[in-house]
Amino acid sequence: MRRTFHLALISLSLTACATSSPYKLSSLSYSEQELKPKATRGIASVEHKEKSYLSLDLPYAAFEKMRVEVEKNQSVQLQHRGEAHITVISPVEFTKLKKKISMKEINALAERMDMTKSPYHLLCVGKGAVKEDSTYYAVVESDRLFQIRKAVHVLYTQKGGKAEDFSPEQYYPHVTLGFTKKDLHLEDGVIKDASSCIYSLRPSESVKN
């Protein structure tokens, strides 16, 4: 129910941004061909003493071009990691989940749910800022990634974890394009959803038609 409400808010946010954003939602284009699953798309399951997470790795070319366009239009020079991914379980979330389940178990669950083939939809390019720091990202929506988070929650509670330790619905999937000094996250007060959009996105194939 809450997720349905969130999807409705996304739709309203995109509509509101189109009429009230100071950027008037200029469009950036991307190539759908460059987003199709390739050998470079896979699961990154990292379990480390200091930083553990689960993410869906994506082909980088389309997102690199988005970053270049953002830099040009926003007159900024962004730092970046030279790769693209959608985080599914964040390092902060895993610090609680690891009380009852391992990253190996989470990874096995993700593989059973065919995470590498997860469909996702690009919504817009968003911007988050805290004081002088800014971060730019492609906001996405993916029901399968959300379902994987729900399955992780079920596994965690089945093993004795408290339901309130991890909220599968508190999820704002995105692909980080770049940042001025450091990437900003939910813990910094930045919510990477459609309410932060500054550019709409549309396939370059449709731009030509």
Automatic annotation (TrEMBL):
<dbReference type="InterPro" id="IPR009097">
    <property type="entry name" value="Cyclic_Pdiesterase"/>
</dbReference>
<dbReference type="Pfam" id="PF22547">
    <property type="entry name" value="2H-SAK"/>
</dbReference>
<dbReference type="InterPro" id="IPR054498">
    <property type="entry name" value="2H-SAK"/>
</dbReference>
<feature type="signal peptide">
    <location>
        <begin position="1"/>
        <end position="18"/>
    </location>
</feature>
<feature type="domain" description="Swiss Army Knife 2H phosphoesterase">
    <location>
        <begin position="52"/>
        <end position="185"/>
    </location>
</feature>
<keyword id="KW-0732">Signal</keyword>
<protein>
    <recommendedName>
        <fullName>Swiss Army Knife 2H phosphoesterase domain-containing protein</fullName>
    </recommendedName>
</protein>
